[in-house]
Design goal:
Radius of gyration: 23 Å
Largest sheet: none
Structural class: mainly alpha
Number of helices: 18
Order of helices and strands: HHHHHHHHHHHHHHHHHH
Helix content: over 70%
Strand content: under 5%
Distance between the termini: 13 Å
Number of domains: 2
């Protein structure tokens, strides 16, 4: 993961901050655009051209929508063509391999070669951001941006470029040109960035190693090993992605931006409906505003509402990756949400809240099995090990794994709850806090650096999206 790499922490970020605060306000967007393109091109220089093309496409569409303000037919044509071009770019780079591999299942197309197309990192995120600008400009929710550098900064802004949160243009339109900076905002950003870094490096990476061990022995896993593995993955993906989001929002604050919160302790939810209001909030908002509501939402009867939910969740699933298991994962949650809409949510509200918590956690945990296994056979075997004792209830290896990692699992479970926020709130106004905070921050940062130096295992699950 780029944000939790030593070159980023000790070279790129300090140099960027120094340059950013040295230049006058009128040049700050140009600096951010330049360093963002440098950041993006560090791993894949050729895809800078793709990003520049996306910036020019959507900037031009916005200007045309402004120029055709009195001609609704032309405005609609510009919108449709721009959305189609964005989706074609996303579809080609992200889904061409899936399409060809699926078509090749038919004997008549078996001769087709497998396309070797590298996935540009962050393409799903910046494509959705760009489309939000064009759609909102069409709806007259925002004015067309006339400054190409300002618009390019919005699309390419490196803190949230790779994996969100998905920032809608209407939410940062004013900030792009009139943002303010303060030591308080900067220090809040540093605090949030460090918190996210700890979640990613100290928790997600360690939990990921448990999951990898359990996946490697999936065929022979006892029930204990299977549940231990998927519980570790459940917390890993939360700390991995929410940690990145915290770092992105924290970095944004350092540069004067206030990005939307992307996670709100989703594992405390007592229904799937509530879970998806707390998990990846920016993606849910995007699909609601630009897909669900335009399709009719809940305004055209129950049958149409069900169809709209399945369309949104099918798209949500396939957005996460070019594999059919993601579509299955999305439709799985679509089914649960439809059930809650029509009867299950009413039953959950009558039951003790603990029942809702257990139901939600079980559904989400099982959903992560669908999410991580791209092969149906592997997925099926893992489900079998979760619910049958064909390999025993436990084994010496699984007990050893549990005992060895029990402190990590307990600590991780605690940080899935708003415990840290509660402690922080209570201590904030006490005099001891002024001494403890810098000491704890220094210790946490030292631990993160030590972990990065000593470990080669630093995956980032949302890079592929």
């Amino acid at each position: 993961m780029v944000f939790s790499s030593l070159p980023f922490l000790f070279f790129f970020l300090p140099a960027t901050l120094l340059l950013y605060f040295l230049v006058p306000d009128r040049a700050k967007n140009a600096v951010l655009l330049g360093v963002s393109l440098l950041f993006y091109g560090y791993g894949e220089p050729v895809y800078i051209l793709l990003m520049l093309g996306s910036i020019l496409l959507n900037y031009t569409a916005g200007r045309l929508l402004g120029a055709f303000d009195e001609n609704e037919k032309r405005r609609k044509t510009v919108l449709i063509l721009c959305v189609i071009c964005n989706l074609l770019l996303l579809g080609f780079f992200k889904y061409a391999s899936l399409f060809v591999s699926t078509v090749k299942l038919l004997p008549v197309f078996s001769f087709l070669p497998d396309p070797q197309i590298a996935l540009p990192i962050g393409i799903s995120f910046y494509t959705f951001q760009s489309m939000s600008y064009v759609i909102d400009t069409y709806r007259r929710n925002c004015a067309p941006q006339k400054n190409l550098i300002t618009f390019g900064t919005y699309v390419a802004l490196f803190p949230q470029l790779i994996a969100g949160p998905i920032v809608r243009y209407v939410d940062v339109e004013w900030q792009l040109q009139h943002r303010t900076h303060s030591m308080q905002m900067f220090s809040n950003g540093v605090r949030l960035f460090l918190f996210g870094l700890c979640k990613k490096v100290l928790l997600a990476n360690a939990l990921g190693s448990i999951w990898e061990q359990c996946k490697a022995t999936a065929d022979a896993n006892s029930i204990l090993a299977a549940w231990l593995g998927i519980l570790a993955f459940t917390m890993q993906i939360y700390f991995d992605f929410s940690g990145y989001s915290d770092m992105a929002v924290g970095l944004g604050k350092m540069f004067g931006f206030s990005f939307v919160r992307n996670f709100d302790y989703p594992y405390t939810a007592s229904s799937i409906t509530e879970f998806w209001r707390r998990w990846h909030i920016s993606l849910g908002t995007w699909f609601r505003e630009y897909v669900y509501i335009p399709l009719g939402g809940n305004r055209k009867g129950k049958a149409r509402q069900c169809l709209n939910i399945f369309i949104v969740w099918g798209l949500t699933g396939i957005w996460h990756g070019a594999s059919w298991n993601f579509l299955l994962w999305g439709l799985y949650f679509g089914v649960l949400l439809v059930m809650e809409k029509f009867f299950l949510l009413r039953l959950l509200k009558k039951a003790p809240r603990a029942v809702g918590h257990l139901y939600t956690l079980l559904c989400v945990i099982l959903g992560w099995v669908l999410f991580d296994f791209t092969r149906l056979g592997d997925m099926g075997r893992y489900f079998t090990n979760l619910f049958t004792a064909q390999n025993g209830l436990w084994s010496a290896a699984s007990l050893d794994l549990l005992v060895h990692h029990l402190p990590l699992l307990v600590l991780s479970a605690a940080f899935c709850l708003p415990l840290a926020r509660t402690v922080f709130t209570r201590l904030k106004n006490k005099r001891v806090y002024a001494v403890l905070e810098p000491l704890c921050a220094a210790a946490a940062f030292t631990l993160c650096v030590a972990s990065l130096v000593s470990s080669t295992y630093n995956p980032f699950l949302y890079f592929r999206f």
